[in-house]
Specification:
The chain has about 290 residues and is mainly α. The protein is built from 15 helices and no strands.
């Protein structure tokens, strides 16, 4: 059914279902509102304001600033002191790139409610958008003092430290994420990448352990396989004990064979990714580059 063929009640029900299912569908939300509900807002009853909020966020996603301004104007008139509406206002200012004004609004929210996690996160996002990575790190650290179990915040702090080239602190943050998701092969792989980037014999050994665990959790993780190969290759060529070097050589050979099997399955039997130079061309360098 086309959006313009929906009755206003059907359109309302569709938007309600998307909210309940936590589906964003910004383009469709804007289209349904404009075709079916824009001139029937008063009929929405108790759902009027929640639909306007849904449309407001969808409009920002689609760059429909005028529509977003119309929605927020109605919301502010209904709830002028609402912290939730003030946060939406800050999002609009952020979309208009009026970052300082948005920060002022968020600061006023935080002063009224220090436990408002969403506003604190938006503040970090704005500082990051302005290129003030040091200030963003400070704000995120302050946030984590109050919300220590927020794994997404730890992950973001890790990314911020990586942007600054502070790999040791980034590794600490990712280890905090690992505490919440010990069975995630991607987190083990990420920690392996960071330790490999730091370099040095000890960090290569640690990276090797993380890559091995990532492969144990997901044997098809090519990046972890390639990382394990590079770590083993480094150990085999180092001044480590002979037994450790031989073990690394065997593991590197197994890893290379495993990578070849996976790439042949995905690309067909004609694939010839069997030598190290071809693998490096296929996967690139594992080191994390700071901006």
């Amino acid at each position: 059914m086309m959006n313009e063929d929906l009755s206003w009640s059907e359109a309302r029900d569709v938007l309600r279902k998307w909210r309940d299912d936590n589906e964003r569908k910004s383009d469709e939300v804007v289209q349904i509102f404009e075709y079916c509900l824009a001139d029937k807002v008063k009929k929405l009853g108790n759902e009027k304001l929640i639909i306007l909020e849904q449309v407001f966020i969808a409009a920002l996603d689609c760059g429909r600033i005028k529509l977003a301004e119309d929605c927020i104007r109605v919301l502010i008139s209904e709830f002028p002191e609402s912290l939730r509406i003030m946060k939406l206002k800050a999002m609009l200012l952020e979309a208009l790139e009026r970052y300082d004004d948005a920060l002022d609004v968020l600061e006023s929210i935080i002063k009224r409610d220090e436990t408002n996690a969403g506003s604190r996160k938006r503040k970090v996002a704005i500082l990051k958008a302005k290129g003030q990575i040091g200030d963003a790190i400070k704000e995120m650290c302050d946030y984590l003092k109050k919300f220590m179990s927020d794994q997404e915040a730890w992950h973001e702090l890790c990314n911020l430290y990586l942007m600054e080239g502070d790999y040791n602190k980034a590794a600490f943050c990712m280890e905090e994420v690992l505490l919440h998701n010990p069975y995630s092969h991607l987190i083990h792989q990420r920690l392996g990448d960071i330790r490999y980037t730091i370099g040095g014999q000890d960090n290569i050994e640690i990276a090797k352990s993380y890559y091995a665990q990532a492969i144990k959790l997901n044997g098809n993780n090519l990046r972890a396989l390639y990382g394990l190969y590079l770590c083993c290759n480094h150990i085999a060529l180092s001044k480590a004990q002979i037994a450790k070097r031989k073990e690394a050589q065997k593991l590197a050979s197994w890893t290379l064979q495993k990578i070849t099997e996976i790439t042949k399955k995905s690309k067909g039997k004609s694939s010839n990714l069997t030598d190290v130079s071809a693998l490096e061309a296929a996967f690139g360098n594992l080191e994390i580059k700071s901006n």
